[in-house]
Structure formats: structure tokens, C-alpha cells
Design a protein that fits this description.
The chain has 208 residues and is an all-alpha fold. It contains ten helices and two strands, in the order ααααααααααββ. Strand 1 and strand 2 form a beta hairpin. It is elongated, with a radius of gyration of 22 Å. The termini are far apart.
């Protein structure tokens, strides 16, 4: 009988720790999600860096930080390098899913992200192709990665190929060299369906 009464408080204590731990984890996740939303509307590098401390180190947090930093500090080569380093390598990768949907509302069932933060995130999402073009103009040595990404970045709402025009015109020879490094099959698809380096002509346009 004594053993039974000893075990019961222990079970209750364990259950309490599990519930409290889950509550703290949920609070932590909400804090990170809220900080991510705040980063999308930060107006200075200092504000961004302060928010990064609470945003965690998820791929989405790092992508939003790098993209927004490049918006508020257009000549920041470190942010440009970070953004280029986050380019997805695979069309079906989790990283590509994040590029196509920064909001990822379906992963926020607790509504940790306030509604006012949705619009800045959506705007940042729309600006990603332009920011990526800016990044590669700052670091042209990364041109092959930039050009290769065009093969998986064409979606109905993406203007990646449109933004490529200013890259092609500003760094034409490097752009052409990067296109020539594609495999014959990829190069054929690129110049016929996405973008023609001759004349820097966009072929793929987003749906209006």
C-alpha cells in the first residue's frame, strides 16, 4: 500500500513536467514565429539583428533575415552571400517550399503570427527574385548558382526570369558563362523556355 502511494505522486510529478515542458516549448515556438514576422518589417540592420536572437535558427528564419537585411542595407555583401547560400538545390526540397511560401500559415496552428505581420511577409515573398538579383550583382562569382536556380524557380507567381534581365545586362559575360556551364539539356530548356541571354530577353513571365 505504501508503495502505491509513493508511485502516485511520482506519476503526477512526471505528468506535470511533461505538460509544463510542452507549454514552454509552445511559448518558445510562438516567440520565434512572432520574431520572424517582426523581422519582415524591421527598418534597420540593428533592429533585424536584435530580432534574430529570438527568431531561432530555422531555414525560414535565416532566409527572412538575409532577405530583409538586403532590403534595408542594399550594399550588404554579407547578407547577399547568406541569401545566395540559401538557394535551394532541389525543386522538391523543404527549402524550396519555404522560398515559395514564406508565410507557411499551415505550420502556425496556434496563430502565433499576428495578422499585421502577414502583409510584410507577403511583400518580402514577392521581392525575393529582385533581392536575389541584387545579391548576385554584389557577388557575381555566385552567378552559376543563381542561373541554375532559374530551372526550378519558374512558378505562376514568380518573376525570377523578369529580374534576370538586369543581371544579364549588368554582368553579361559572367551571365553567359554561367548559362554555358549548364548541361546541354538544361541549357536548351533555359534558353528556349526561361531566358535567352542573347539580347537579355525574358521568355517566362508570371501570370498577371
Amino acid at each position: 500500500m505504501k508503495d502505491r502511494w509513493t508511485v502516485k505522486p511520482l506519476i503526477v510529478l512526471i505528468a506535470c513536467f511533461m505538460l509544463c515542458g510542452g507549454s514552454l516549448a509552445q511559448k518558445s515556438n510562438c516567440e520565434e514565429t512572432a520574431a520572424i514576422g517582426e523581422m519582415a518589417k524591421a527598418v534597420s540592420p540593428a533592429a533585424l539583428r536584435a530580432l534574430k536572437q529570438n527568431a531561432g535558427n530555422s531555414y525560414r528564419a535565416r532566409l527572412i533575415f538575409a532577405a530583409r537585411m538586403l532590403e534595408v542595407d542594399p550594399n550588404n555583401k554579407s547578407a547577399a552571400a547568406d541569401l545566395l547560400g540559401l538557394i535551394p538545390k532541389d525543386e522538391f526540397s523543404p527549402e524550396q517550399a519555404v522560398w515559395l511560401d514564406l508565410l507557411q500559415i499551415d505550420q502556425d496552428p496556434n496563430r502565433c503570427l499576428p495578422d499585421p505581420d502577414l502583409k510584410p511577409l507577403g511583400r518580402l515573398q514577392y521581392h525575393l527574385p529582385r533581392l536575389l538579383a541584387r545579391a548576385v550583382l554584389l557577388i557575381p562569382d555566385r552567378m552559376p548558382e543563381y542561373v541554375s536556380y532559374a530551372l526550378i524557380s519558374t512558378c505562376p507567381d514568380c518573376d525570377f526570369a523578369v529580374q534576370m534581365r538586369r543581371v544579364c545586362m549588368a554582368r553579361h559575360q559572367q551571365f553567359v558563362d554561367a548559362v554555358n556551364k549548364l548541361s546541354p539539356k538544361e541549357r536548351s530548356w533555359f534558353v528556349s523556355k526561361i531566358f535567352n541571354p542573347e539580347g537579355c530577353r525574358t521568355i517566362f513571365f508570371p501570370e498577371q
